[in-house]
Fold these 4 entries.
Entry 1:
Amino acid sequence: MVLLRFAPSPTGALHLGGLRTALYNHLYAKKHGGKWILRIEDTDPTRYVPGAVDGIRAALEWTGLGYDYGPGRDGPHGAYYQSERLDLYRTYAHKLLESGHAYRCFCSTDKLASTRERLARTGSNATYDKACLHLTEEEVARRVRAGESSVVRFNDDRLPERDVATDLVFGALRDAHASLPTDPVLLKSDLFPTYHLASIVDDHEMGITHVLRGEEWLPSLPLHLDLYASLSLQPPQFAHLPILLNPDGSKMSKRKGNVSVLDFMQRGWEPEALLNWLALAGWGTHHDPNGRPPSSGDSQAPDSTAIMTLPELVHQFDLSALTHRRNILDPAKLEYLNKHHLMRSWKDDEETALHAHRIRELVKLDFPTSQYATPDYIAKVIRVLQGRITNVFDVPSLAPFFFVDPDYTSADAKSMIRSVSTDEYLLALDTTISFAEKTMVDDDISLVATVIHDVCKVTGLKQKTFMIALRHALSAMKTGPSIPEIISVLGPERTIARLKNATSIVTSKI
């Protein structure tokens, strides 16, 4: 069985890049009948943000990405906080020390800084001079007994033999040891591990078969494979995911812009649309990680604006179809996807009712004096606004006239009837009022449309002139649902009252 893990650090809110990593782990695990773990990498106490883990879990729950094991979901792989596994890392660090693949370094922070400066001045790419590598066992033991502070470093003079690094997305990789720091630190002086040691130990101990993580860790892959080989452990398969970029081409970061997942939730975006957007931002054409050209039978990636649910994403997901390119997240695509996910959901009355309950407080906040902020009424408004709503939170601004009286003093209202004379305006409204008072206006849109058509014929006005007059009286907005749809939501009493009010306003100015 495949087993994957999503391992965020509790240093802040879960951002879009992290959510996409969690999503791809979920898609791969479910596609292959496997499971995935939420593991909290909290080995740097100085960067810990209280409440961050709860925020990460809340974001995953909102998007429907349910992990199989992790905080709150015990399983055979715990503990799921790295800070609760410190003895394990120290055990592996001791194994590396015993085999000569690691050594203790007693150099102070000041000495290390001085060494780096000295090496840089000589044009060396080294970041450390290995001053502690050749200390005798007796000297090391004496300094440890004396309580001297030390770290454990990997010894890159004794690199083990291993296979060439291969990535499931980027394929065979060139040797990148030159880009690594000299003898990287594995265990810090506070006895907390660095990411390099903790991640490989946990992935082995938990039985992780595939590691899907961000491209920023690709330069560290040689070191991680060296550690596996030094410990005689079988490494998992690796897939590094290309970095997401902001629309301006800059790297997406939790420190820059509104990229928090919970921020998208609070702004009214649909979780299905957000996952759809992230999944397709990096889903390109099929390629073989070993460099072989694609065959005619290979799967192709979906279009970048394909409307897909989470089960559909699971069904179609293919690591070999991920691009190597860094991907810009286009907000316009999210708007498109969100709109169409909403339209899908509104085919179900229960889903529409859920949306109505969701935005009820927003409607009440925008229109505190309105008596029409009920879930049933809001659901009726949603139904006639379908196709116009990009974000469900747009409902109050798209059609305020459903909740409060029209604003006839707005620039929109004044400009829309410039082409309609006062006589034409009053004729249209008076005739409609007469018909409405005699004929019960039903909430059946097709029936209302028939009545409106008949009224227009009676007035003898051009249809455009007639409709402009009614739209002005009922909504005072140039755009919006059709006149029959507006009337069907307002109902006969409010429709007649608005027509009479508009008539009296115009008459008073004559």
Note: The chain has 19 helices and eleven strands.
Entry 2:
Amino acid sequence: MAFEADPVHDPTDNPYLPKRFHDMSPALDTNPTDIEYATAPEFTPQVTHDPNGGLLTHPGALWHGNGHGLAAEAGDEDEDETGSNSSDSLVEIEPHEFPGYFSERGVPARLFHSHGMYCFPVDSDEMKRQQALHVLLRQVIGSNYGDAPVQGVLNHGSKVVDLCTGVGHWVLDMAAEFPFVEFRGIDLVPIQTREPPGNVRFEIADATQELRFANGSVDIVHARMTSLRGETLPYVINEIARILRPGGLFISAEWGSYAALHPQHPRFGEHGAYIPGAHNFYEQSSHVVARAQDIPGFIHANGAFDEPVSQLRALPVSRTHYVPGMHQASSRQDEALFFVSQVMGRIAKGYARALVAGDVIQQGVADAFIGELQRKVGIVSVYHSVYARKRG
């Protein structure tokens, strides 16, 4: 199996993004409200399950610890001298160590994290799916951080930590926008670029374990599409609260792991009957990701933060998108929705393929879900974003 020498960051060479999507990008970026239901504050998730219930051939500067969490190398001002028990030095990953982070499985073979802690593939196709999501969200929302008051928090020398950074698209974009800020991208798998800019470092660590940063040493912690399981979230949020300075900012964003229709769809609330394939798909796969709608409650319950500010965005995912009062939509709005639904549809199919490859769901479940995306009108994916300031 051939692997790329470095993740591809050129979004114009991405099969998940239609070529003409790039022509629409300026329109989506300058006026994202053209997408009628990019924001849907009236959307109420229908809880339908138990609420309790490219290998890098030239790795470059990636760092790991010894399993007890990461600690800083000599002279690294990230070092926690007071609040963490981590005491090991950061060690650069050697090229011969990289194969140990990966394993192949499935037919056709796909690349996975070797330790089994992450159920999604970490190969080129998954990297491009994640890239397409990043590009789409940036265009629809209008920035890499939505309404979160990022600019009011960051100053020269500020530090930002991105948990579950993946390939690092968010970190690299933000590092270009804020070149005076230091960024740290944390992930289990070494799939990041081998040549990050000078204000970026990628580190290999488990975000569900003790973070190596000192108490109150970080200005922003960002966690997006993490695939962290619900039972880990209280501890993770507690660690985030520990490393954030007073007034620091926590930003979280996750996709809702439930079947959903546009809020004004006439069958809204009848998901089980109208889209049973999607309903079953999410019922069988929701256990591998955090319940996005629970995160504001976890933040509130932690007690270290001001009241969290939440926003929901319902993006069209079915082949035939739905516009309230279909005949009233302007041609520009309709075209924007068409491109969003095209990208989201391709991403959803890639997500289903990834879950099959990871043995989370059976092929038949994925096929039923994909079939509904092609036939049914008004299916959406709901993007839950929330931010909160640490109390000073």
Note: The first helix runs from residue 21 to 30.
Entry 3:
Amino acid sequence: MRNLVSWTSLISNFAMHGRGKEAVESFEKMEQEGWKPNRVTFVSVLTACSHGCLVEQGLKFFKKMVNECQILPDIKHYGCLVDMLGRTRRLEEAEKIALEIPCEMGNEVIGERVTTKIMEIERGCGGDYVLTSNILAGAGRLGDALSLRRLMDYRNAIKVLALV
């Protein structure tokens, strides 16, 4: 017998393996069976939409989460949106969302410290630079965000786009 945790696990596994369509189908089946998604379920399905380049579906899920399910988005939900839009080269939309993230959403100092440590370990992973740059931009530190993007270019760090 399935419950919300098993449904969310299934959706998350599909997301991790790049099977966005299956994740979306599972989400819809879960709802048909009467299960109400929680914030973790939405992170899973938004991740699946991001990795599967299912932007329009991802945007609908985000709106559903906020408007129908009355779940306030946190930094993980916004991060999924920014990643999803970035992967499909909708960079202006991604930047707009990143800049609209409420500052109280997260502590940019902690985020910067954590990501800096990750960048020490994985210098060539462009996703870490992009995430930190978005955190800084969201906190209004546009000069620091730009400097980090330049460092990304200097180090030839590559942000891998999802395959469609």
Note: The radius of gyration is 16 Å.
Entry 4:
Amino acid sequence: MADFRTSTHRERWILQPQDLMERWAEVNQRAAKTLAQCGTTRLKVDPVDGSLSFPDPAPDHVEGSSDIKPLSYEEEQLTRVFYEQKIQEVCAAFKFPHKIQATAIIYFKRFYLQWSVMEHHPKHIMLTCVYASCKVEENHVSAEELGKGIQQDHQIILNNEMILLKSLDFDLIVYAPYRSIEGFIDDLEDFCRAGNGAYQRLTDLRQTAISQVDKMMLTDAPFLYTPGQLALAALHKSNDAHRVLNFERYLESVFSRQHADCPVEQFVQSINAINYLVDQLKIPTVKDMRHIDRKLKHCLDPSSHDEHKKKEKKSKHKSKRTSTDAQLINSNNMVALQKIQIEFGLLDPAQQQYVELLSWPADIALTRDNNFCDGARYATHLALLYVRCLGTSPFVTYSLSQGKMQQEV
């Protein structure tokens, strides 16, 4: 029977905060160095054996000359959290159990202890983590079905499977807090001597605790604390909301039965530290990710950076031209109005208010050669306004050759 105390999860993947920061900083600096040397960070993965080859410098690339900026340490952190939440959304869409979701997130976290998001796009690794998790937890879903369900190429999932397993060092058995919560809830039924009314309160306690664990899985807590600690921290937070029991007394009961080495007070400090991580969690929105995602795309594919610069230059030129035309349109609005008045003989002051209704769209203004700037489309619209406002029914056309309005009865 699997036992957390003798598992590779406890032996190799419960770390100290300083270890985490050093590993993340190391992979971030490595990717930034690769970008400076080669002009790109994309690594080529052999789908058969998972072997990697680093990018060769582009023929015209001069080291340090690229204006593509690498992601910062903080931007990588936000990117990881964003895609960890996406794993939860994918698992919810497929109605996978919490165990699969937790395993996939832990795989994802462990993978990016070895690699930067600039080296392997997290969107691809995310899907492979879900796929591998389904296999390990014996809830098999084919790569084709998974890819089709979220409209992604299933071959990407398969291509990254071996590099994922190698990066995890094939430590595939992981322990999640969800199962621990179920065990503690069973224990609480005996501790509270739950009657019929208390069962519903314990059910509410359980549901809120599961939601709290969902948030914990997006923090660094799964690297720093055991699943049992995470489960008790979630139940403690849930009990603050539902007031089902005296939680400190329950902790004393647990520690007395387990003959734990550390005092209850020290464990309560760990619980508070876990819940503090949840309180400090910031989940980036799609809007927050736009700039980061653009930088990531440029790191992985430098040609996209060149395309972006061209579009940006074209957009600026277009914006400048539009601004110039707008100024010209504003200066000619009165001239345009007078031309319409003369053209239709609308000089009666009583009809002036109707004429002003015709002057608001920029389309009736003149261009540099004093012609109306739109043509037949707006002429039709103007004719309809003329009929509605003045109660007459002229047939109005636009002369493309003469560039003016014409009225025919």
Note: Residues 305-310, 346-377, 387-409 have pLDDT under 50 and may be disordered.
